[in-house]
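Researcher: Here's the sequence for the chain we discussed earlier.
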Amino acid sequence: MTLRHYLLPACAALMLLSGCGGEVEDTLPGQPIKHRREAFKEILRTFEPMGVMLRENTYSSDEFNQLAAALMEIRDTPWAYFTDDSNQPPSKAKDALWANRADFDAHRLAFMDSTDALFEAAKTENPETIHTAYDKVGETCKSCHKLYRR
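Model: Thanks. This is the structure I predict for it:
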């Protein structure tokens, strides 16, 4: 048998298997996993430009205040989608989230408090004060993800 006899079936098998590793669809009624992911992505799309401004010394008080206000408007969105029945693929939430809901809620409240502080800091137009508050929001996200996200 030649190499071609082995290579052709192997390539065909690889092509078939390559379609098996895709993202699992959220099939729950109302698609809570999909909606909370989209909400978190929107939060990140609002939060990250603030960090870019601070890191690259391109701070603009008007733009930063607009982003801080937008963050305040959307920060509540993902939490309602952590329904008890949404602990299944494609969720990236660890089982610990469902076992420790009180602690998860405490992390959510810490996020709320830190975004409140960021919103107030933005009004000062003091980049140092703002940077400290911005970092605190990032720390609350990281802390929760470390415990509750795969």
